[in-house]
Write a structure and sequence with these properties.
Layout: H1 2-37, H2 41-65, H3 69-108, H4 127-139, H5 141-147, H6 149-185, H7 187-242, H8 248-260, H9 266-278, H10 284-299, H11 301-308, H12 317-331, H13 335-355, H14 360-373
Helix pairs in contact: 2-3, 2-6, 2-7, 3-6, 7-8, 7-10, 7-11, 7-13, 9-10, 12-13
Length: about 375
Amino acid sequence: MSDTAESTRMINAKTFMEVLIRFSLIAFIVVLCARVFAPFTGIMLWALIMAVALYPVHQKLVRTFSCRDGRASTIMVVLLMVGFGVPMFFVANSILSRAQHAHNALVNQTYEIAQPKESVADWPVVGERVYQAWDAAATNLPELIKSHHDLLVKYSKDGLGFAVSGASSMLKLFAAFVVASVMMAFGESGIAGLKKIYRRACGPEKGEDMRKLCTATVRSVAVGVLGVAVIQSLLFGVGFIFADIPAAGVLTLIVLIFGILQLPALLLAIPIIAYMWMVGDASTVMNVVFTIFFLVAALADNVLKPMLLGRGVDAPMPVILIGALGGMITAGFIGLFIGAVLLAVGYQVFMGWVDEDPHGEAELAEADSVVGEA
């Protein structure tokens, strides 16, 4: 009996060592693969999100032009570069050149400020103070720069670094879109692979439902957040051009960033409206028309977001919105999608666990019968 127990113990010890060695090797390989893949994680995540969000458009191009998936991907890349890449290049180049010029002017103390108009003093509440500070800065700018030279140079360096970082981020997004187009070119095989992964991870019954939920959530956030931000920025851009607002392209980009970050566009609309009434030279009728237009454009997301966000997703819209906002706060811009997907999946898993309560329906039916008899 003791020999049998000893042999069993040795077999268990040997089996444990084999499992431990195999687990260690697998963990070692996973860590190495993660370190090799780490520099491309951001671009690949963005590429996957873009591929999932834009795949219906890609398939529509395939059907419209009766072409192959690869040619449709090429068409999408060309359209993006012409319709979005070229304008963004000029905007980014303008911002970078202005930031570089301002930084060099502060360093060399050659920066100039124009004299304020007399109408600035008529602004309500703060007009007189703004006029005095502006006039003092324009009159005694060399002394002002000299007294705050180090601080101004520091701020200008930070601004220049932010502009360079923004331009770098745009280049990464373009690179991610090119990778996404390659993914869409092999969309059918990619979907088949994802189905296998979800079935393996979630089981044969829940796997396909979870895949559809994640896909619908990504597309919903892409349309409900990015789509609304683009629509809102286009509305403002048209208004800036017709109202003859200076730096219309830069202001349109700021509106787009506000929409992506879920900041209210009224933060920019109110100063623009104040500028039109106090500094602009348009008639009163046109100022009223543009005021109404900018207010409607600023509040458009309150109507569009409930219509588009959460559309086609089993999870409620507040769950998607909370996940998107919480994910963005936690992980930045890409957290919009990751947070929404995680919260939607978590909600579905939790509600599935609640619905599968074997005693809940029986107890509820029994309670209803008791109430009916009473």
